[in-house]
Amino acid sequence: MGSRTLSLAVEEQLRSLCLKDFPCGHGCWSKSRGSIFEEQSWGYSEQDEGREGAAKEEEEALMEHLTSPLSPWRHEGSWSPQAPTLRELSVRKPELLHGNFIFSHFNTLRIVDKGVSIVDDGLLRFSNLRELVLSANKISELQAEYLPCTLQVLELYANQVSSLKGLSSQPLPCLQHLGLGCNRLGSPADIQYLTGTLWPRLVSLDLSWSGFQGQRALVDALATLPSLRTLVLEGNPLTLTPSYPGFILDSLPRLLYLDATRVTPDDHHRFEGLAKMRDQIVDQAMATVTVRRIRGVPDPLLTVDESVPEFPVVSYSYFVNYEFLSQSPPGNKQAGSDTASTSDPMAPIAEKMDGGIVGIYQTPKENCEEETTNTPKPDTTARTMESLETNHCSIDVIMNSTHKLAWAESMDYDHTSVHSVGDLGSFKSFVLRGLWLTVEEEKVLSWPAPSGEQPITKSTTEKKGGKEVD
Fold first, then answer.
1. Which of 194, 235, 353, 458 has the greatest number of beta carbons closer than 10 A?
2. Where exactly does CATH 3.80.10.10 map onto the chain?
3. pLDDT digit string, tens, across residues 151-176
4. Any signal peptide, and if so, which residues (predicted)?
5. Which of 171, 112, 165, 120 is CA-nearest to residue 138?
6. Against a cut of 0.85, is the pTM above it?
7. pLDDT for 6-24, tens place per residue?
């Protein structure tokens, strides 16, 4: 599909106003146009008949066609609040409808989901433009010289912008809101363009659902924005760290809103001092996986045929497998044996963030426990999955398991493991994909051993799906 310019999309919206068609513009349907549009072809004057003629209407009647909720000529004009007023002007003062006036009439343009991929210089014709919303388009690059210097609001949510270099080449002096959420931003090069030198009047900044990972570098840049009061960072990998949002709030004390939530004095007091601990801020996430109990597994003895031989004796046990990222640090311990090591660099931050981290790290295990089995167990080597992020081609995951329990109506595992993740981008993709769990059944067959020999056992494992896991 070819490129589509913003000028083309705006022209289509302007044509939809039908400014030259009934009941707008110059036309014989308007009585106020005078004798210029009088119909001469009928051979008589309307005044001689004592009536106005069905083809002409008063100005107020034409206005009612534009504003009545039941009128087929009513135009909502959701793409600009000035669109309905321009149509009204086309009835009251149609002589004003020339190109320069039309373009200067608009203060707001909302061109949403129109397939726009190029912002061209045609936008400069809108000399009084204050608000430009280009959400849900296909814009990958934006040149500041094609934007009117009068802009106060620029919204580019859900596009394909991968660099801020073009937007910062000629800063907009009046810009108060910049919406860059859900784009392909997040590199260190992007951070250097988020400074007060370029955006001295910026009050609101939306960077949500992007790829920013480094809190300290981002905070250093945002702290130079003297007017910043509203910041949106949700959906970024850095929000997965224990130090978020405390470090951001303490480092940017002038913020009034963070992630659409009002920042209260209690919030500032709660996180006071985190900015001074910046050397201990680590771009690392902690995730706790807990499997409390399982219900709903059918009783395996209900399906046993009473006519089968006495041997082999069959015993059943169940355990839960789940995949997690393989970036866990070496030397982790089994969950339930200790608490997190106090030498962990994240420990002081976690303690500041209300209660610290409960639990310990866990080393991915190749089996739930030692077994004698001839049936292959689930793949316990690290493997890859498709990533949801464009900058991560694949993510390494490894299988983790709970201990095994004999069947019961409610099997209480009380399994807890804490995973440390250093690659925040991969962790974000993993979280968006979701945590996959499988409940597996192990069946052990036992025969009595001849005298002087060890008992013989044979185990098999079957996967169970759709079970309730708390």
1. 194
2. 6-16+78-280
3. 999 999 999 999 999 999 888 999 99
4. none
5. 112
6. no
7. 999 999 988 877 666 555 5
